[in-house]
Amino acid sequence: MDPQSLNSVDEDLVAAYVDGDVTTEERQRVEAAMAASEQVAWEVNTLRQTVELLQDLPSVPLPRSFTLTEDQVADVLQERRSLARLNAAPPSDTHAPRDTAWQRFLRFVNGGDLALRNAAALAAVLLLLVFVAETQLQRTPLGSGEQLSGAPAAPQAQVTAVGGSLSQEPAATAGDDRADEQIADDGAGQDDEDAVIGVMSAGAEDQQAAGSEQAPAAAEAAQPETSSAAGESDQQQLSGNETADTAGQPLVTILRYARILLVLAVIVLWLLSRARSGSSRA
Amino acid sequence: MEQDILIDRALQGDLEAFNQLVIEYQGLGYGVAYRLLDDPDSAADALQDSFIKAYRALDNYRGGNFKSWLMRIVVNTCYDHLRSRQRKRTESLDDMPVEEEYVAQLTDRSETPHEYAERRELQALIGSAITSLPEVLRTAIVLRDIEGYAYEEIAEITSAAVGTVKSRINRARGRVRDYLSKNAELLPSVYRHSLK
């Protein structure tokens, strides 16, 4: 054995040379060492023969199949299947796209039990009608009195206009000559219009009570007889309006109670609708 | 890649998918286990344990060469069996029975009984030479010269540098050669004269 030659070739290089896994330079280096030393040549050649013997060994046939059964890995299998089921579950609400405010409002309105929700809606409509009727009654007390007293429709509209004008301008009513003249002219001989004046006087009762004596005085000076007739008519109309007020008062009260009841009904029905929906979901 | 799909399915509890991987690699695994342990029963037990370990450890597989990852488990499991066997020392390796099925597979109908006997003796001698090696040298020579793995794969399986793998292979070959040369009368004539 030539130690000099052996040292010139590393053992990993010999292994690679035997396997044919070397570069040209490495091959030349090993072959030069083999040429220089019989021992190196013997070493390399016997290693190559040993590899051939090993490679000639037959492949080993399988004695059986090695596939796994569920019993062999039952614990891990169950754990993985549980995890897979969890991962396959639908994503949580946090991942869902957020609804717009309008969609949330619609869902809120459309939620709840359908029958109770419709009942609540009906009560709401009735409430609206009662509210409108009540408002109309409060805004037009004269109209209500007129209807109750059975006065004609055309003069009623006219008087309402005049009365509205008077009520809006109480000072003008007290001292305005035009109003006096209109009253004087209107009361010149037409019975229908006497009634109109009477109604106006009744409607403007407060204004006249405030100290305006000129209009009746002027009317009396112009047409004393007519004026006296109108005065009688005023008396009758005043008594009629009082009757109308006392007759309309219960109606307003009824409407007021109806309004309160309907508000309560809307709230209770809507709450019941939501509660029944929630219990059915649960 | 189909193998990655099978691994994903196996991770989700699909045992059938993992068994397809078992079917694909059980031949390679059994060859390595058999050569490392030189015993069919021990090799079968070690390989079965290896696949069970592999399935349990599949969460730790981080991609890359699945074959190398699996073979590392096989090699380490074989080491465990070797150490267990050394502790027990129930019977000599030379007395290990050879399965009849295995013998039948190795039978070449064209050879004479004498040739068959010689071939069996040579195989047993080589097997004994391999099992005489330390674990790391045994693994290196089995993976390289019998199973045909590349240096890089062996380095990955054994967690060693490629240069270290080459050195181990060379040393293992030298020791096997020396073992065989002591029993040269069992070698074919072409080797008998050169190894002496």
Description:
The complex is a heterodimer of chains A (282) and B (196). Chain A is mainly α and 282 residues long. Chain A contains 15 helices and no strands. Chain A is rod-shaped, with a radius of gyration of 56 Å. Chain B is elongated, with a radius of gyration of 18 Å. The chains are: A mainly alpha (282), B mainly alpha (196). At the A-B interface, α2, α4 and α5 of A face α2, α3, α5, α6 and α7 of B.
Q: Stretches of chain B where pLDDT falls below 50 for ≥5 residues?
A: 99-106
The residue ranges of chain A in which pLDDT falls below 50 over 5 or more consecutive positions are 1-6, 142-233
Sum up the overall morphology of chain A in one term: rod-shaped
- State the CATH architecture of the largest domain in chain B: Orthogonal Bundle
CATH topology of the largest domain in chain B: Rna Polymerase Sigma Factor, Chain: A
Which helices and strands appear, and what pairs or packs with what?
The complex is a heterodimer of chains A (282) and B (196).
Chain A lengths: L2 H5 L3 H8 L5 H13 L1 H18 L18 H15 L12 H10 L3 H26 L1 H9 L3 H16 L1 H6 L1 H10 L4 H13 L1 H5 L4 H9 L1 H58 L1
Helix pairs in contact in A: 2-4, 3-4, 7-15, 8-15, 9-12, 11-14, 12-15, 14-15
Chain B lengths: L1 H10 L3 H23 L2 H17 L9 H23 L11 H7 L6 H19 L3 H12 L4 H8 L3 H20 L7 H7 L1
In short:
The complex is a heterodimer of chains A (282) and B (196). With 282 residues, chain A is mostly helical.
Please supply descriptive tags for the structure shown above.
heterodimer; A: 282 residues; mainly alpha; 15 helices; disordered N terminus; B: 196 residues; Rna Polymerase Sigma Factor, Chain: A; Arc Repressor Mutant, subunit A; elongated
